[in-house]
Design brief:
The complex is a heterodimer. By secondary structure, chain A is mostly helical. In chain A, 51% of the residues lie in helices and 3% in strands. Chain A is built from six helices and two strands, in the order αααββααα. In chain A, β1 (72-73) and β2 form a beta hairpin. Chain A is elongated and about 70 Å long. Chain B is built from 16 helices and no strands. In chain B, α1 runs parallel beside α3, α11 (300-322) packs antiparallel against α13 (337-366) and α11 (300-322) packs parallel to α14. The chains are: A mainly alpha, B mainly alpha. At the A-B interface, α1, α3, β1 and β2 of A face α2, α4, α7, α8 and α13 of B.
Chain lengths: 150, 464
């Protein structure tokens, strides 16, 4: 089959195929962007559509401290520390417990275990992080993963 | 002299710096690998997120350096003319390397949040996303330098013979730069942020870099086998078409569980299942051209890297990716060590091996030889086998941790928490670390092969 095909034919196949698929890709991408900016497809109906200032601050802190350098959210990031998309449900929505787990990490100095660096967050920053983690836990990811064990 | 155009020598610093960064990547890979089992190793001076970030970022930087170096080397030879303004390539090189080293040094020397403040990340926040952790200003520097480099190469290519290899290589380099610019878009909406991050990372790995890999493969095969350009470039266009047809919408393989709409199950599964096709074509292409070869090229080591790269690409990136790309399977494997296993074989097989093939082919010519002397080539071929077998074991041990993690943490009736599982699978992390050491030794041997001299006792005709 390939013997009978000319180089020019292959060349047009590349350009035509590439451009067609590029348009299809962009169309799908923008359709998704539209879908995601409408409330229903993104969150469970119980959650407010607008992101609060605290959630946005939480996302900023998450990025700025390279949290995804160890943890995953929605299954993405690094696989060194525990998975955090389910942390809000694992802690049964107990905000203080989540804040404590950030505050008091590495207090005991146990050897050879994976340790989290100590961050100097203010009280309001800790609240923002918890709000952000709550927001992440409420994104509708179709009940992935099955067991809530991060 | 084997070098056809004097300005091709600008590729030399790019290749040397790429090898240096590969050494950095391996060293920091060993550190983060050890931290998986000795969690407080080097803590708190070098926490895992930093060592791992240096490991992945040095990879991306070294690949950009080889892509640009290869483009400089290939384009003037393909165009049959000297590069326009070769001094520009030197300036781009030093600025690129300075940005890369400053970025890596910043990671190691400063807490990440400090680095973000120091580089004014608040003005335009792009930091903190996997593979795209570079400070905004460093990203800007890389992109501007790449744009200048692409323009310089396009102008050069315009002035002489037009070839398919040039076309695909430059489309690949230009689109890599365009896609990189999307890294500046980091919306607050977590789903959208993840959605568009893949437009950079996935499109690099499965589209734009792969086009360059195909062009580099075609360039090497023409030189090594002497098969007619028409046949080689026909394959190149077919492979490139298959790359775009499968790879673009294949991005959907990352969209199953991040809150994107349901239709991505189908788009992602169907198109990413096609992603092994261009890789299989590369393998068939390489073996076919080898069979059709018109002469025996003296650079056996470069040939070994070239052919080996296509095989490992197909097995590691193609088959290895297909195993966990379908949505029902990915439901269990998403965000586990299965991904880690796959990405090691993918980056090594496709991009590192092909980079080493290009370096192995080009560097002797940059020093006025057609190939390394035979003893040096034997040493280099040993390094090929040691590194490739070591990476195969790294992948197999990581895949074992992945399967166990999926089972213990998600699949079984009695799932265990993440950290409990991590401790139970530690044995295989230790084995991975040993295989990593073997890889490091292999790379030292690779570097040493450049300094092996010909046997003085045998009267040896130098390949001039």
């Amino acid at each position: 089959m390939i013997q009978t095909l000319s180089k020019e034919r292959a060349q047009s196949l590349f350009y035509v195929g590439g451009i067609l698929l590029l348009f299809l890709f962009l169309a799908l991408g923008f359709q998704t962007a539209l879908d995601l900016s409408s409330q229903k497809s993104l969150y469970d109906s119980s959650v407010d559509h607008e992101l609060s200032a605290n959630v946005i601050l939480g996302k900023t802190l998450w990025d700025k401290n390279n949290c995804s350098g160890c943890h995953t959210l929605l299954g993405e990031g690094s696989y060194f520390g525990s998975e955090l998309d389910t942390v809000f449900s694992r802690y049964q929505g107990h905000r203080e417990a989540i804040k404590d787990s950030i505050r008091f990490i590495d207090t005991y100095g146990i050897r050879e275990r994976r340790v989290m660096p100590r961050f100097k967050f203010t009280e309001s920053e800790l609240d923002a992080i918890v709000d952000f983690l709550r927001y992440a836990s409420e994104i509708n990811i179709k009940h992935w993963p099955t067991p809530i064990k991060g | 002299m084997s070098l056809k155009y004097k300005s091709q020598t600008v590729a030399k610093p790019y290749f040397i710096a790429a090898l240096l960064l590969f050494a950095v990547q391996i060293a920091f890979g060993l550190i983060s690998g050890l931290q998986y089992v000795r969690g407080d190793f080097l803590f708190p001076n070098l926490p895992f997120d930093v060592s791992h970030m240096v490991h992945t970022n040095s990879l991306i930087m070294l690949l950009f350096l080889t892509f640009m170096g290869s483009a400089y080397y290939m384009v003037s030879e393909e165009t049959e003319t000297e590069l326009v303004a070769p001094w520009l390539a030197w300036i781009i090189f030093w600025l690129f390397l300075a940005t890369a080293l400053a970025t890596l040094a910043g990671y190691v020397a400063l807490p990440y949040a400090k680095l973000a403040e120091l580089t004014k990340n608040d003005l335009f926040p792009t930091m903190g996303r996997k593979y795209l952790e570079q400070p905004t200003i460093a990203k800007l520097s890389f992109i501007v330098l790449m744009i200048i480099s692409v323009l310089q190469l396009f102008i050069t290519a315009w002035r002489g013979r037009k070839t398919g290899i040039n076309t695909i290589m430059l489309i690949g380099l230009a689109s890599t730069t365009v896609v990189f610019a999307l890294a500046f878009y980091n919306p607050n909406n977590l789903v959208l942020s993840k959605f568009y991050r893949w437009w950079v990372v996935h499109l690099w790995i499965r589209c734009t870099w792969e086009l360059m890999a195909a062009a580099m493969l075609a360039f090497l095969l023409i030189r090594i086998t002497g098969v007619h350009r028409n046949i080689i470039e026909k394959w190149l266009y077919l492979i490139s078409a298959a790359v775009l047809v499968s790879g673009l919408i294949g991005v959907g393989q990352h969209y199953y569980w991040i809150g994107a709409p349901d239709y991505w199950y189908w788009w992602g599964s169907v198109f990413s299942a096609l992603e092994p096709v261009p890789m299989f074509m590369m393998t068939v292409f390489a073996f076919n051209m080898l069979n059709l070869r018109n002469y025996e090229h003296p650079n056996k080591a470069a040939l070994l890297w070239t052919i080996g790269s296509t095989v490992v690409t197909f097995l590691g990136a193609g088959i290895g990716g297909f195993i966990h790309t379908l949505a029902p399977i990915n439901y269990y494997t998403h965000g586990t060590q299965i991904t880690v296993a796959h990405s090691h074989m993918l980056f090594y097989g496709t991009y590192i091996m092909l980079s080493l093939a290009m370096i192995s082919y080009a560097v002797p010519t940059l020093y006025g030889h057609k190939a390394k002397n035979e003893r040096a080539q034997v040493v280099e071929m040993w390094s090929f086998w040691l590194m490739t077998v070591a990476m195969t074991f790294i992948t197999l041990f990581l895949a074992t941790t992945g399967v166990l993690q999926v089972y213990l943490q998600r699949y079984t009736d009695n799932p265990q928490p993440f950290m409990v599982v991590q401790e139970r699978i530690a044995l295989f992390y230790w084995m991975r670390e040993l295989a990593g050491l073997a890889l490091a030794i292999g790379f030292v041997i690779y570097l040493a092969s450049f300094f092996v001299t010909a046997n003085q006792h045998k009267k040896h005709k130098p390949h001039h």
